Amino acid sequence: MSHSSEQPLERVTIPALQQWKDKGRRVVMTTAYDAVAARIADPIVDIILVGDSVGNVCLGFDNTLPVSVAMMNHHLEAVARTRPHALLVADMPFLSFHVGSEDTIRNAGGFLQRGADAVKLEGGAKRIEMVRALVDCDIPVMGHLGLTPQSVNVMGGFKVQGRTTDTALRLLDDAHRLQEAGCFALVLEGIPAELAARATESLTIPTIGIGAGPDCSGQVLVFHDVLGLTEGHRPKFVRAYTNGFQLFQEALSRWAADIRKGAFPGSEECYRLPDQLRHAVANWVPSSSTSR
């Protein structure tokens, strides 16, 4: 869908998200790691996240830990060039906000300089100082609690969080501390639906759920998961709306078959010489110098 022939979509802003929370309008968020995905998603969603999930989805890593700031910059720039109407959020990858306020501000500020509207970082109480430092520099921050993929080794795998009294109450406390520190929204991932509902009800800022039940202020899924482009096991919280992996393979298979039987390219995919030049080319013979 091209914006050039239509009325441009109004840019989504952080104040707008807060207004939607107050009015009960649900927020739609997905990921994009390149310009094609951004152009597909932008007319439909409210927030585009350039996620460090690019590591799993596009780069072949087992988790997000190997993703660097340089990698994130590369993918963010590709998405930002499409000038999306959606709010553009960039993930702070592992070790980009664990290294002191100065480096955290520099890394996050670099994302804004490359076109992001905000950054997202994982973790609760331990990250409050960094959140405050960023907010003090007018860098908008989206928090992320629950199943935080960068903590996969500490958690012992990708497991549902908040299933004990201590962890559930700590999550609620962390959510409010992040709100007080200045986060404009929170992603709640991989937690019981009742816990996410209580967090959403008690916070004034929007919550965006992924594997956190239906009562959050909005929902996020990875672009490739929604379109069925990922192979193998899908998490319980993923609903694929088409089997993109199979559809793409079928299209490529038809193309390959046409090549092998000489049906591609056809006349409609070929350029033609003007009649006079076609005659000259057909009657060309090698000169003595070119035939040596």
Automatic annotation (TrEMBL):
InterPro entries: Pantoate_hydroxy_MeTrfase, Pyrv/PenolPyrv_kinase-like_dom, Pyrv_kinase-like_dom_sf
A Pfam family recorded for this sequence: Pantoate_transf
Keywords: Cytoplasm, Magnesium, Metal-binding, Methyltransferase, Pantothenate biosynthesis, Transferase
Name assigned to this protein: 3-methyl-2-oxobutanoate hydroxymethyltransferase
Cofactor(s), names only, from the UniProt record: Mg(2+)
Alphabetized CDD domains for the sequence: KPHMT-like
E.C. number: 2.1.2.11
Originating species: Bradyrhizobium huanghuaihaiense
Pathway(s) served: Cofactor biosynthesis; (R)-pantothenate biosynthesis; (R)-pantoate from 3-methyl-2-oxobutanoate: step 1/2
Catalytic activity: (6R)-5,10-methylene-5,6,7,8-tetrahydrofolate + 3-methyl-2-oxobutanoate + H2O = 2-dehydropantoate + (6S)-5,6,7,8-tetrahydrofolate
